[in-house]
Write a structure and sequence with these properties.
Helix 2 packs antiparallel against helix 3. The chain has a two-stranded antiparallel sheet. With 113 residues, it is α+β, with helices and mostly antiparallel strands. It contains four helices and two strands; from the N terminus they run E-E-H-H-H-H. The chain has two domains: 42 residues, no CATH class; 71 residues, no CATH class. It is elongated and about 45 Å long.
Length: 113
C-alpha cells in the first residue's frame, strides 16, 4: 500500500542545507500516516516528468527499445515521493533502474542529468 503523505501540523526540528551548506535547524513536516520526514533542503526532488524526459533523450542516443522504456518507466514511479527522496537519491535510483534494463554507460546518464 502506498502512503498518500498527509502532515497535520506535527513537525520535527532537523538540520537543513541551502546550496550545499548547513544552515541550522528548520521545521520539517512529518507524515502522520507513515512517519517519513519531508525534505525541505535545497536538494529537493524533481517531478517524475523530469526523469521521463531524460529517459527519452537516452532512448534516442542509445537505441533503447519501447519494451525497455516501459519497464524503466514503471519502476520510475517510485521516484515521485517528496517525503522519501532528495534529488541526489533520485538520480542514483534512476541510474540503477536504467542500467538494470538497458546497457547505458553511467557517464552517459550523468551527462544528461
Amino acid at each position: 500500500m502506498v502512503c498518500e503523505h498527509k502532515s497535520y501540523g506535527e513537525k520535527a526540528w532537523l538540520p537543513y542545507e541551502y546550496r550545499g551548506r548547513q544552515r541550522g535547524l528548520k521545521a520539517h513536516p512529518i507524515c502522520s500516516e507513515c512517519g517519513l520526514v519531508k525534505n525541505v533542503s535545497s536538494d529537493r526532488p524533481k517531478p517524475i516528468g523530469h526523469y521521463m524526459n531524460i529517459l527519452g533523450r537516452l532512448a534516442e542516443e542509445h537505441s533503447i527499445s519501447l519494451v525497455q522504456i516501459r519497464l524503466i518507466s514503471r519502476e520510475l514511479m517510485c521516484l515521485e515521493d517528496p517525503y522519501g527522496f532528495c534529488k541526489h537519491q533520485q538520480e542514483e535510483v534512476f541510474k540503477e533502474i536504467v542500467q538494470k534494463y538497458a546497457k547505458v554507460p553511467e557517464r552517459s546518464i550523468d551527462s544528461v542529468l
